Amino acid sequence: MHYADLAALYHQPFFSLLQQAREVHENHWSDSSVQLCALLSIKTGGCSEDCSYCAQSAHYTSGLDTERLMEKEQVLERARLAKANGSTRFCMGAAGRGVRAGTRGFESVLEIVRGVAALEIEVCVTLGELGAEEAEALRLAGVTAYNHNIDTSPENYPNIVTTHSFQDRLNTIRHVQDAGMSVCCGGILGLGETVEDRLRMLEVISEFNPPPESIPINALMPMPGTPLADGKPVDAFDLARLIALTRISTPRARVRLSAGRTCLSDEAQALCFFAGANSIFYGDKLLTAANPAVQNDLALLEKLDLEAKPANRSAPAPCSTPERPLSPAPK
Is 185 annotated in the active site? Predict the structure, then answer.
């Protein structure tokens, strides 16, 4: 969706935007399901990148302990628990610039992926930059979706990260799509961006071809020691407004209410669900940030008459459409 169209939608009265988003949601999602996704950091800290919001960056003194890649059986134990608690997607994150085929670390990750995939749960990973070879290997190992957020607008990105470029992010997304995996790609609110930056971010995401299968919308969780440690809380109404716009711009994507839910009341989360969110990260931890407890999440969904979505590992990745160009190709 073009920027001008996004801006016209965004700047209309709040309830008009929500009403349109709800109509789009009901036209494309006939049930009341919410996808529950568990997230585990399988390798924590020591990252060479300087993302200014991230406690895992080696550039900052955040107090976070650096941990090596978890053993396969440790990960499988957590995956089994997540599945038993209702999660239908298990997401694994490893801090670092990226992975490379032929290395011992990547082979260990592939072995972990094969083990989790055998549990009949959707598998998502976020491992940083990928080349075509690495993307294909992950798909063959059983990865359902690859998370690679663009975080903010192309214009604001250099203010947040200097160790890689916005184009680097797009290159990885293209490799993931070419390998036949679904793309999970969203952004973070609260990075010092303007409304225009938020709209540009959505413009880029909504014009991916094929479209992203899921779009996480995160609110900054300020981390001690990082440049954004004193970041201002994101207004709940701004968050709901952007979720509504995301739902309208990419109707068939799962819109995931992600980091920052600890700062939202039940009422604010309900507003976000009404606006079009139909997926949450679920459990005790979001990589290095806290997340509402399992029982609190289940109780809220029950109050709102929302049901957990069953896993569907056989669902194909979104297909590209001929009426618009493919997502930007690697340069």
Answer: no
| Phi and psi, residue 128, nearest 5° | 85, -150
Per-residue tokens: 156 = 């604001």
Helix ranges (DSSP H) in 29-102:
72-84
Domain 3-26+33-306 sits in CATH at 3.20.20.70
Distance (Å, rounded) from C-alpha 61 to C-alpha 105?
25
Would you call 256 a catalytic residue per the annotation? yes
pLDDT at 310: 62
CA-based nearest residue to 149, from 90, 79, 220: 220
Q: Report, as ranges of residue numbers, the positions in the chain whose pLDDT lies below 50.
A: 286-288, 331
At 79-116, the pLDDT tens digits run: 998 888 788 889 998 888 888 998 999 999 999 999 99
- Determine which one of 37, 78, 89, 124 is catalytic: 124
| CB 212 within 8 Å of CB 254 | no
Domain ranges across the chain:
3-26+33-306
Predicted local distance difference test score (pLDDT) of residue 315: 54
